[in-house]
């Protein structure tokens, strides 16, 4: 199981953000892309999640290519790729008018990923695992920042991704919650999840310690 990014390049106008960059993620260690604002971390994560196009290069997850030598694959292959990847956004991006449970069910139900009963069971078990049982019927505004993030993680895990991506997971959280997030990420890793984190938070890097490898975003170009 691995994410392999090879010879990836991206420009915005004349501004080369990423140049012929190789990089990989496995379940053996959490991969952290560390770097200052503006260095291209978000752009890299967005390309891996098919939210931004690449100029050149390949992105492959567990043998399924999103893009190969700059050529995007068929819609069916891209769908298969996207089901294997979950993203937890920096601002969580929960649907504000839906309950916690509805937030988890929306995408897998509309993708006909499984029966409603099975998905309900899965959602409840993930919420349990995240320590937010009992909040199924509340709306996101009734949750703390840390709880919203746990809902976002549970939502990202509904379709059993093999890779879970985090965009600046600690930027909106206080120190105590940061330690809890680090613990949760370590738990997910222990369960065999591949994890990619982009951050500028060196405290988080320290908390993840020897379970993580750090990639510096200054090396993109
Ligand atoms: N859609 C876009 N069009 C033009 N330039 C862009 C676009 N998106 C990002 N950039 C530029 O690309 C560079 C890298 O941005 P990016 O957001 O990837 O950096 P970052 O390291 O994630 O920073 P931050 O932590 O502030 O999000 C910046 O100079 C930014 O202005």
UniProtKB/TrEMBL annotation:
Domain (ABC transporter) ranges: 3-220
Coiled-coil region: none
Which Pfam families does its entry note? ABC_tran
- Which GO-annotated molecular functions does the record name? ATP binding
Q: Which UniProt keywords apply?
A: ATP-binding, Nucleotide-binding, Transport
Asked if the Swiss-Prot or TrEMBL record annotates the protein with the keyword Cell wall biogenesis/degradation, the reply is no
Q: Which Gene3D superfamilies match?
A: P-loop containing nucleotide triphosphate hydrolases (3.40.50.300)
* InterPro entries given in the database record: AAA+_ATPase, ABC_transporter-like_ATP-bd, ABC_transporter-like_CS, MetN_ABC_transporter-like, P-loop_NTPase
The record's PANTHER family line, in alphabetical order, gives: AMINO ACID IMPORT ATP-BINDING PROTEIN, PHOSPHONATES IMPORT ATP-BINDING PROTEIN PHNC
Family, per entry: Belongs to the ABC transporter superfamily.
- This protein is called what? ATP-binding cassette domain-containing protein
Species in which this protein is naturally found:
Fundicoccus culcitae
Source lineage: Bacteria, Bacillati, Bacillota, Bacilli, Lactobacillales
């Amino acid at each position: 199981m691995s994410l392999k990014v090879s010879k990836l390049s991206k420009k915005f106008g004349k501004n080369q953000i990423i140049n012929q960059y190789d990089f990989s993620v496995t379940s053996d260690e959490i991969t952290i892309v560390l770097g200052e604002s503006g260095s291209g971390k978000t752009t890299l994560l967005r390309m891996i999640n098919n939210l931004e196009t690449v100029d050149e290069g390949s992105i492959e997850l567990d043998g399924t290519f999103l893009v190969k030598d700059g050529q995007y694959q068929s819609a069916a292959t891209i769908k298969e790729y996207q089901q294997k990847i979950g993203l937890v956004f920096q601002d969580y991006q929960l649907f504000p008018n839906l309950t916690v449970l509805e937030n988890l069910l929306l995408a897998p139900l509309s993708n006909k990923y499984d029966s409603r009963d099975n998905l309900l069971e899965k959602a409840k078990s993930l919420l349990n695992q995240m320590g937010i049982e009992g909040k199924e019927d509340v709306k996101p505004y009734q949750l703390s920042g840390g709880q919203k993030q746990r809902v976002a993680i549970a939502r990202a895990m509904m379709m059993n991704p093999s890779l879970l991506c985090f965009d600046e997971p600690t930027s909106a959280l206080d120190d105590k919650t940061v330690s809890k997030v680090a613990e949760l990420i370590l738990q997910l890793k222990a369960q065999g999840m591949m994890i990619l984190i982009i951050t500028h938070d060196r405290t988080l890097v320290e908390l993840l310690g020897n379970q993580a490898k750090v990639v510096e975003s200054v090396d993109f170009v």
